[in-house]
Amino acid sequence: MQLPFNSLRDRLPPLSAVTVDAPARLHLGFLDPNASLGRAFGSIGLAVDAPGTRITARLADEDGVTGARSEAQRARIEQYLNLLHAAYGAPPVAVQVHHAPRAHSGVGSGTQLALAVGTAFARLAGRTPASTELARLLGRGARSGIGMLGFDHGGLIVDGGPGDHKRPPPMLSRQVFPDAWRVLLIDDTRREGLHGDAERHALAALAPFPQTLAAHLCHLVLMRVLPGIAEHNFDAFAEGIGEVQQTIGEYFAPVQGGVFSSPAVAAALDAVDTPGIGQTSWGPTGFAFFRSVQDAQQGLSAALDATRGTSGIACSVVAAANRGGAIHATHATHTTRTLGMQRCKTDCP
């Protein structure tokens, strides 16, 4: 039996530390960047089990950040703590970063870090806000809901884009990704995807997205990608994703230097034998879907051969994450409990 966390909170000793594990996410494409029917963006994406984010927040004498992989990441977490204190109060909190993806590489590092820190902080403050509330507070999810929804639910997700009055993108579909399928990720660590002002300027510089192309993308997702997942039809899924990516990549090509932002990633993907290839978000990370671990390993070998002698290329084979993030809470009595994103298991010791 499971009960809402709030109904158990008064029975438990105070929390002293909270660890949050958040999956990475692949943004597989926008559906209508130009709001041809009045609603902008809409996204399809997938939560994956690596490279994930893991942080621990502890009550402390003063706020602090340890383990950040860059000064920019440390400053970002400090900003989050300031915003969280203003919203929820709470005593000082020290945040330790155990591991996190490289920033601006296309795997959702910013949103996952924000939600992990926000969730841990809120639990220490005795609060259980929704991920949408935390994302709004910390300035995430303005265009896509894949990061928020992947954090909560995992799996393959389609969102409806932000609504009126800056409402968060609603989840239109959530499918369990087939366990046997794998994803090859290829990152060009010498590059970063567009972000901040550069991203805003790039979007403003693009020509209007034709309604006919938006209709084509929606048709591909509804009648190829989602049925392919539901029926475990790899060819339908992979071909649909590949065509979505080619269409949206050609649209973004003028501001990112081509269908792929990294020529090395493009060369690696050109060498693998699957139709399901593309770039997550602004890249530079590219992806390729495979129907089995064995096929993915062959794709990995081909990608490594194609980029041999090219510095900064990092390749890995990952699986989908069909569950959202996990929370591990330590109470003042040193009893450790594992919490779901919204619930606490009553069978903890």
From TrEMBL:
Residues 79-145 form the GHMP kinase N-terminal domain. GO terms for molecular function: ATP binding; kinase activity. Pfam families: GHMP_kinases_N (PF00288). Keywords: Kinase, Transferase. The keyword Kinase applies. NCBIfam families: beta_RFAP_syn. This is GHMP kinase N-terminal domain-containing protein. It comes from Caballeronia sordidicola. The lineage of its organism: Bacteria, Pseudomonadati, Pseudomonadota, Betaproteobacteria, Burkholderiales.
